[in-house]
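sry for the spam today, last one i promise. C-alpha cells for design, 267 residues
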C-alpha cells in the first residue's frame, strides 16, 4: 500500500498542479480572502506611532515584519480541504475516491500541496517587501535558524491540512461539518496569533502554547521574524512535529470510524 502510494504521488502532484493552473481565477479569489493580515498591519502600524507595545516593546517595524510574515505563512500553509470533503460527502462523489487504490487523504494532500508553488509566486513579492521595509533587521540570524524555517512551514502546512481533513471527515457523522469549521476558525484567529501577536496577549499565549493553533501560524511567523531562536525554537519545533504525529493518528482513527457510517448525501 505504501509503495503503491509513493509511486502514484508524483502523478497526483502533477494533476493537482494542472488543476491549480486551470482554476487560477478561483485561486486568486482564495488569496484575496486571506488579506486580513494586511488590514491588521495598517491598523497596528497606525497605532504604533503613539509608542511601543508589549513586554518586548513592539514598534512599527516589528508590526510590519510580523504581519507580512503572517501573510506569507497563511498563504503557504493554508488549506481548504474541509470544503472539498464536505461537498464530496454530500454529493456522493467521495465514493469514486474510495474506488481508487490511493487513500483519499493522500489524494487530497497532493491536490493541495501542488498549489503551493503558485502560492509561493504570490508570497515572494511580500517576502521582498518585508526584507526591504525592515532593512533585514527582523529576520532570523544564523544558518540553523534560517534552516528551521522550511521545517516550521512544512509542519504548519501539515497541521493545518490534517486539522481540516479531520473536520471534513466529521461530515461522515454529521450532515455539515462546516459549522464545526466556523467555530474552529474563530478559535484559530485568536490562538494562532493571526489577528494579534500572541506576545501582546500573555494570558492567551500561555494557553496557546499547549494547543496546535500556535504551531500553524504563530510559531513559524516568530521564527521568520527572529522573535524566537536558540533552544526555545528547537522546543517549539519539536512540539509542532509532535502535533503532526498526533493528528496523523487521530485523522486515521476518525476516518476508519466514519467510513463505516458512510452514506452519500444526495446519492
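last one done:
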Amino acid at each position: 500500500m505504501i509503495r503503491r502510494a509513493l509511486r502514484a504521488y508524483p502523478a497526483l502532484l502533477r494533476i493537482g498542479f494542472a488543476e491549480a493552473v486551470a482554476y487560477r481565477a478561483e485561486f486568486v479569489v482564495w488569496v484575496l480572502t486571506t488579506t486580513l493580515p494586511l488590514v491588521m498591519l495598517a491598523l497596528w502600524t497606525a497605532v504604533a506611532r503613539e509608542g511601543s507595545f508589549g513586554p518586548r516593546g513592539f514598534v512599527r517595524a516589528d508590526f510590519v515584519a510580523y504581519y507580512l510574515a503572517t501573510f506569507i505563512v497563511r498563504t503557504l500553509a493554508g488549506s481548504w480541504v474541509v470544503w472539498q470533503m464536505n461537498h464530496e460527502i454530500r454529493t456522493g462523489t467521495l465514493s469514486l475516491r474510495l474506488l481508487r487504490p490511493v487513500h483519499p487523504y493522500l489524494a487530497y494532500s497532493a491536490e493541495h500541496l501542488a498549489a503551493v508553488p503558485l502560492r509561493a509566486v504570490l508570497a515572494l513579492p511580500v517576502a521582498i517587501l518585508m526584507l526591504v521595509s525592515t532593512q533585514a533587521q527582523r529576520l532570523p540570524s544564523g544558518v540553523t535558524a534560517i534552516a528551521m524555517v522550511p521545517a516550521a512551514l512544512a509542519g504548519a502546512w501539515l497541521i493545518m491540512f490534517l486539522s481540516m481533513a479531520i473536520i471534513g471527515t466529521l461530515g461522515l457523522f454529521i450532515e455539515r461539518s462546516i459549522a464545526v469549521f466556523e467555530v474552529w476558525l474563530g478559535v484559530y484567529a485568536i490562538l494562532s496569533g493571526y489577528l494579534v501577536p500572541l506576545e501582546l496577549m500573555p494570558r492567551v499565549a500561555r494557553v496557546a502554547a499547549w494547543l496546535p493553533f500556535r504551531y500553524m501560524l504563530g510559531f513559524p511567523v516568530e521564527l521568520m521574524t527572529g522573535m524566537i531562536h536558540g533552544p526555545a525554537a528547537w522546543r517549539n519545533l519539536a512540539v509542532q512535529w509532535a502535533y503532526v504525529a498526533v493528528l496523523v493518528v487521530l485523522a486515521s482513527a476518525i476516518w476508519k470510524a466514519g467510513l463505516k457510517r458512510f452514506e452519500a448525501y444526495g446519492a
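The chain has a mean pLDDT of 81. ok im logging off now
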